[in-house]
Amino acid sequence: MKRWWIWMIAGLLPLQALALSGEEVMKKSQAAFLYPGKDFKARVVMKLINKDGQERLREMTMLRKNVGEAGGEQKYFMYFFQPADVKDMTFMIYKYPAKDDDRWMFIPAINMVKRIAAQDKRSSFVGSDFTYEDVSGRDIEDDNHVVEREEKVGSRDCYVVKSTPKGADADFGHKVTWVDKANFLPLKEEQYDRKGARYKQFTADEVADVKGIPTAVKRTMKNLQTGHRTEVAYVKTDYDLGIEDSLFSERFLRQPPRKWVD
Amino acid sequence: MFKFSLVEFSIRRPKLVIWATVALVVLFLTQFPRIKIDTNPKHMLPENSDVRVWNDEVDKTFALYEDTIVVGVKNNAGVLNRETLGRIARITDEILALPGVASRDVNGFTTITNVTAEAGTLKVGPLMPAAPKTDAEVIALRQALFGNPLLVDRVISKDGKTTAIYVPLEKGANGAEIAEKIRAIVAKEKGPERYYVAGDPVARDTFGAEMFKLMGIFSPIAGMIMFIAIQLMFRNLSLSFTMMGVAMAAIILSMGTLIGVGLPVHIMSSMAPVFLMAIATDSIHIFNEFYFRYREKRNKLEAIRETMAAVSRPVRYTALATTAGFAVLLFMNIVPVQVFGGLIAFGTVVLRLFSFSLIPAILTFVKEEKIAKAAESESAELDRTARFLRRIAEVGATRPLATALVGLGLVAVAIAGTAKIHVNNNLVAWFKESSEIRIADTAMNQALGGTSLGYLVVLANEPEFMKRPEAMRWLEGLQRHLEAMPVVGKTFSVADYVKRINRVLHDDDPKFDAVPETQDTVGQYLFLFSMSAKPSDLDNVVDSTFQKANVWVQLKTWDAEAMRQVIEAAAGYQKAHPLAVTVKPAGIAYFNLVWNDEVLGDLVLGLGLALVVVFVILALDFRSAKWALVAYVPLLFTILLIYGVVGFVGKDFDMPLSVMSTLSLGMAVDFSIHFISRFRQHLVESGGATSEAAVREALLWTAARPGKGILRNALLFAAAFSVMLFAPLTPYMAVGAFIVSMMLLSALFTILYLPALVMLGRKHLFN
After folding, report:
1. Ramachandran category for residue B145: left, alpha or beta (phi over 0 → left; psi -120 to 50 → alpha)
2. What is the CATH number of domain B63-204?
3. What is the pLDDT of residues B147-198, one digit of tens each?
4. Does a structural domain hold residue A13?
5. In chain A, positions 131-150, which contact chain B (CB-CB < 8 Å)?
6. Of A58, A79, A81, A85, which to mutate for an interface test with B (greatest number of B Cβ within 10 Å)?
7. Contact at 8 Å (CB) between B98 and B178?
8. Which of A66, B250, B298, B557 has the fewest Cβ atoms within 10 Å of its own Cβ atom?
9. How far is A248 from chain B, CA to nearest CA, in Å?
10. What residues 227-256 of chain A have any CB closer than 8 A to a CB of chain B?
11. Is A52 a member of any domain?
């Protein structure tokens, strides 16, 4: 009898090892979505659209450099082209896991670099419907992740992962992410507020291959409660350009090198 | 004639008439459960009215909420201590979790955006993300609050004793329910703090509840009082029941129709039952005459026929006048007033149909001996009341000139009073001073920037205009100009954000508490702000193209006049400081102003219309313009006198009162119609002589006999409406007082002044 038990457990083990846990899915997804390549550059066109269809434009060059492994520290550098009166404004973020970001902004009109407090990763990213967390990621350890089911989004097979914050202080209830089983990009994400109502929806609208890396070059974040949405398009995307670490400094915030921002 | 055949049919087939009525009543009663109440003052004007379309547009452009509940927290020892702040944090947290609350835009200590610089770092974010744990944190919070002019008078009073949580509601959310839940949340907190739950939705819903109370409790009480009064007058239960039955049937048919066609019940139509009950008292003339006739004839059916023949004409014409008086309301601009006018006009027609069918039908069932007993006392010669009325008429008939001169003197005084009338609507003043709402409103107005909110939308001709330093400075100047007015508590605009950021970026140096020099600087500051603030922070004060700016003006009073002063001040500022922009007012305070003006316009229009219509009806009835003119006098006199008193007392002339005065024409004229019709009828019946003595005698007879009906009618009317004097809402009280005094005065003036005028104008009237 005892032997039979052992054999049965032994027989089940490989099967369990094959299935990914929610946390593993989300880790792979974060690596695929936010950490691909050593560095990354894109010209980002952001349309902020209210429920009546009125548009506001943000256009910038975004540079990213990974300091360590996926899930680790990153540096971001942004140079704004649009709206016209903010041209030459630059914005820099040092992103740390499990710690508040460091952020700096250069205000050309008064020629001043100012540190900006980052007490809230869930505040809006440059006035869009994306939060800083949506753009640069949320610490995997902050939530419990469970693979709820598998489902198709369009023609792609996906894991459906429910993530619930461990702490009570989060300003959302939970989120559900549809992660592509093949390339681990999140194709859809729904965020629920603390009252349990769906209030934000992310969609990856177009995925393209850039230097062999699947990249969501068009994406939308929609606030379902206000009807406001933000559409983002990556116009020129590139990986592994060899961006120097020295770029991410106050000096270059004031005078960013042409070759990196154009 | 139709009506005579209706009477004949009713006394031949009384049972059929009664059962048919009962069936109808039951049928209409089935509609009652579908009742809808509408207490939103915005619905006073039609949806496509300019002001509503514009206000909706402004709400949309600046992402504003239609409804916001304001929760005030007051601690006499100051709210800036760890315990109170802990409570505020807990309360806000629970409010954020309530369904129907637009949580993302709730503004209180824990959620409102603050812009500060700490150790060289710019911080844009919630003022107090969590309740302070140390006294040092409390001190820091105090500095943050009083160091930021955007927060003072908005979330903290200058004395530090009061704070507020602004709770906007999602479209379609039930304000009453949410307010109730908020009250339950604050009730859980034990401490020295006082909580006030105020704001537009709360006021509206309280009003709705009181309306139900008025309909459900006061209407039946009015009915009971009338019942007792009728019983005292006629001492016959079946008669009293008849009268009440007729009134109830008419009320149920009218309200059933209103509800059945899907119209909501507004403040005005909630008064309809009391009105219809009072109008039903006009059938008192039928009973009055029936008693006199029965005493003379001792034959019930014959008495019914004769009674109906005698009173048919005046009853028909009074009904016509009443219907017309209310029907003119259909031509007004204010929706609930239209509905109310139509409702009462309809009810009056129903009542009159009953007068010629149901009443004669029921009279056939009344036991003869009972009538005989009751009719004993009904004699113009023996009755004390009748003798008293005769004596009043005698004064007028024997000293017509003196009576008329005294009247003229009173008119002169009344006109002087009328000149002092002050038109004003103040929705919060509709509640009594001791009401929770008034207390909350007063407390919040004393402590913070003001509960009545108006907007000044500044429109430019091109996008990005508002980022120009001159536009910013212009907004700032406008705000300072407005804040110098006593009615204005606090203002804020996009310029406040720009100035705040300028100062904070420059290490909180007061020198930089100003609009910067270039448009790019403004643009970059606002971009910086929008990167971290809530989207609504900027949306509320400027549109996405920076072509329109919205200046928030918090008023210390709900008086409609206050907003007019603001608009005038803004126009004056623009004249002194020309800029290529137009300023358009908006918001609830502006709505109240427009509505106030509509009321005034409606009043003039309605009064004019009613005067013409009633005159035409009088002239038709008497087939003489001269007699119509005479009949007009007591009515005009009464109204002038009441207006005069309103002016002298200094009571605001508001919506309910203006409507009352219009429709009072249609009701007060009844007495004149009865008096003159019956007087002329009697003159003809008694031989047609028009000598001074004959006319005087006929006048005295009229005063004593139909006059008793008039007095009874007036007393019943007054009795029914006196109930409203005890209503919990001031408009109902005002209406009650207005109607009671109008009925009693016009009855008195009819009996005193008609004889005087007829005697004075005898030669003209009878040639």
Report:
1. alpha
2. 3.30.70.1320
3. 888 888 888 888 888 899 999 888 878 888 888 899 999 888 888 888 888 8
4. no
5. none
6. A85
7. yes
8. B298
9. 18
10. 228
11. yes
Instruction: Identify the three-state secondary structure at position B284.
Output: helix
A123 to chain B, any CB pair closer than 8 A? The answer is: yes
Contacts of B721 (CB under 8 A, 6+ apart): B222, B274, B278, B735, B736, B739, B740, B743
Distance in angstroms (rounded) separating the CA atoms of residues B590 and B576:
23
pLDDT tens for A209-242 read 888 888 889 999 998 888 889 999 998 888 888 8
B505: chain A residues, CB-CB within 8 Å? 107, 110, 112, 114
- Position B398 scores a pLDDT of 84
What count of other Cβ atoms lies within 10 Å of the Cβ of residue A64?
Answer: 25
Mean predicted confidence (pLDDT) in B611-619: 85
| CATH of segment(s) B1-48+235-377 | 1.20.1640.10
Query: Any idea what the Cα angle at residue A178 is, between residues A175 and A180, rounded to 5°?
Result: 150
In angstroms, the separation between the Cα of residue A111 and the nearest Cα of chain B is 10
Q: In whole angstroms, what is the distance from residue B316 CA to residue B349 CA?
A: 10
Residue A84 has what pLDDT? 84
ipTM summary value: 0.84
Q: What is the CATH number of the domain that holds A98?
A: 2.50.20.10
Q: Which residues contact B244 (CB under 8 A, 6 or more apart)?
A: B223, B226, B227, B230
Among the listed residues A181, A218, A217, A221, the one whose alpha carbon sits nearest the alpha carbon of residue A201: A221
Output the six-digit token pair for B222.
């009015």
- CATH 1.20.1640.10 domain position(s) in chain B: 1-48+235-377
- Chain B residue closest to A51 (CA)? B60
Specify the domain boundaries for CATH 3.30.70.1320 within chain B: 63-204
- Could you list the residue range(s) of the whole structural domain that residue A34 is in? 20-261
Which helix H or strand E contains A80, and what residues bound it?
strand A74-82
Q: A168 and chain B: CB distance < 8 Å anywhere?
A: no
> Which pLDDT value is given to residue A189?
92
How many C-alpha atoms does A108 have within 13 Å on its Cβ side? 19
A72 CB within 8 Å of a chain B CB: no
The domain tally of chain A equals 1
Q: Output the pLDDT for position B572.
A: 92
Residue A173 in domain: yes
Give the length of chain B: 767
Q: Are B546 and B519 in contact (CB under 8 A)?
A: no
